[in-house]
Amino acid sequence: MRNRPPYAIASVDSALLLATLLQQEGPMRVTDAAERLGVSVSTAHRLLGMLVYRDFAEQLADRRYGPGWLMKGQALPPEPVVRLRGAALPQLRRLVDEIRETANLMVLTGSDVRFLATVECDHVLRVGDRTGRTLPAHLSSGGRAVLADLPPEDLVAALGDVDEAVAGGLRRELRLVRRRGFAVNDQETEAGLTAVGAAVPAVPGSPRAAISLALPTARYSRERLPAWGAALRAAAERISGDLTGR
Q1: Nearest to 228 by CA among 127, 115, 103
Q2: CA dist list (Å): 121 to 83, 125, 162, 214, 244
Q3: What long-range pairs does 222-227 form, CB within 8 A, spacing at least 24?
Q4: What are residue 22's phi and psi, to 5 degrees?
Q5: pTM for the predicted model, two decimal places
Q6: b/e code 172-197 from CB counts within 10 Å (16+ = b)
Q7: What would you measure as the largest C-alpha separation in the chain, in angstroms?
């Protein structure tokens, strides 16, 4: 997992994040972009202008901005993604209030998972915003939870180019994930970071998704793991219920 550089250029970071959001969530008004980035409308307008200039965005006939041709190759279906994010955010906030650790939403894209939303906890030492990042599904907690939920034929495709020896061990681990309903990533993607993930029950027309709790390994507790897993499963069920209208 890549962390934010210590000397990050804020404008570059905002522009890249905005391009990713357009790709994931579809067309936005300038005011929508400003709200998502936490910047002024004038700043959002300037960022969008540069993205249009470099073909990362385009202005549509209704004056909204959508992904440009450079961003259309790996695009997720915007409407289901927006619905999923809208259903998940209240549950992520509820998890953070309950567990007091950072919570994430991610979707399966090929053999990777892409983070769609993060709600950070209020600890000084905490896992930061992962929105827009991608990780190999077989290494992340949420990715493993989704993989464990896939039919066998979809699992083969999602494992992609994973080495056969690794895939064999992973399949054994996925059986454990299915039994207990959650997966753990203990410092496999980043030293000092542990995450617990659960799959959102599949909803027709919605991407395969998972939610996770991410925390510094120093606060990880095996004794609390069953409670964390139960909280994640309950939140995932509520997200699925909201999406299906249950």
Answers
A1: 103
A2: 23, 9, 33, 10, 28
A3: 225/184, 225/196
A4: -60, -40
A5: 0.74
A6: eebeebeeebbbbbeebbbeebbbbb
A7: 56
Q: How far is CA 214 from the centre of its chain?
A: 12
Grouping H, G, I as helix, E, B as strand and the rest as coil, residue 166 is helix
Of 138, 72, 143, nearest in space to 107 by CA: 143
Report pLDDT digits (tens) over 6-32: 655 788 889 999 998 998 888 999 999
| 199, 148 contact by CB (below 8 A) | yes
SS3 (DSSP) at 58: strand
Q: Which tokens is 162 given?
A: 């994973």
Beta strands in 74-138 (DSSP E): 102-109, 112-119, 134-136
- Whole-angstrom Cα distance, residue 86 to residue 84? 5
DSSP for residue 138:
T
